[in-house]
């Protein structure tokens, strides 16, 4: 999200926030894209209590991205979803994981370091993400790389 210093813990990022961010950056989310959200939470990496209590995406934001046909999403927080928040419609914790992973097969990359991309104003780039080859696993550490044109 452009211009974000750091969202407060528990702040819910909505589909309206994502739409406004795209409009402000002059970009659109296209099928096959990877959508990365900068919340500013990385600045609290050395304060585990604050970092773990960070912001997250609403179920509406996850639905909106799924409808756009993204391949993957990612953010600079511990969990894509708001930690500890029960979604009232789905009645579960981690509704984005249900919507994205389970219902749509969309990968979620968490704990990204997005501050340098945000500071550079890099809104479009090639995203390369190499996971470990683990048999039967539901997640993996990855090596993400953003290749910024120019």
**Beta-strand percent range:** 15-25%
Shape label: globular
Helix share bin: 25-40%
How would you classify the helix and strand content by structural class? alpha/beta
Largest sheet strand order: 2-4-5
Provide the residue-averaged pLDDT. 94
Cα end-to-end separation? 22 Å
Low-pLDDT residue intervals, each spanning 5 or more residues: none
- Return the string of H and E elements: EHEHEHEHEHEE
Give the number of helices: 5
What is the radius of gyration computed over CA atoms, rounded to a whole number of angstroms? 15 Å
- How many DSSP-defined strands? 7
Biggest sheet statistics: 3 strands, parallel
Structure overview:
The protein is of the alpha/beta class. 28% of the residues lie in helices and 18% in strands. The protein has a three-stranded parallel sheet with strand order 2-4-5, with helices on one face. It has a two-stranded parallel ribbon with strand order 1-3. Strand 4 (72-75), helix 4 (95-104) and strand 5 (107-109) form a beta-alpha-beta unit. It is globular and about 45 Å long.
Structure at a glance:
By secondary structure, the chain is an alpha/beta fold.
Topology (SSEs and partners):
Blueprint (H helix, E strand, L loop, with lengths): L11 E2 L1 H11 L8 E4 L10 H5 L3 E2 L1 H10 L3 E4 L19 H10 L2 E3 L5 H6 L5 E6 L10 E6 L3
Parallel strand pairs: 1-3, 2-4, 4-5
Antiparallel strand pairs: 6-7
Helix pairs in contact: 1-3, 3-4
């Amino acid at each position: 999200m452009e211009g974000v210093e750091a969202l407060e813990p528990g702040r819910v990022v909505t589909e309206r926030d994502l739409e406004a961010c795209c409009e402000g950056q002059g970009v659109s989310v296209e099928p096959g894209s990877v959508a990365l959200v900068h919340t500013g939470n990385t600045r609290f990496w050395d304060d585990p209590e604050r970092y773990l209590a960070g912001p997250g995406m609403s179920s509406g934001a996850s639905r909106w991205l799924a409808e756009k046909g993204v391949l993957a999403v990612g953010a600079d927080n511990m969990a894509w979803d708001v930690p500890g928040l029960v979604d009232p419609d789905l009645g579960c914790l981690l509704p984005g994981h249900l919507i994205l992973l389970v219902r749509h097969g969309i990968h979620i990359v968490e704990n990204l370091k997005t501050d340098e991309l945000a500071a550079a104003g890099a809104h479009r780039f090639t995203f390369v993400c190499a996971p470990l080859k683990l048999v039967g696993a539901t997640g993996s550490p990855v090596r993400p790389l953003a290749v910024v044109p120019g």
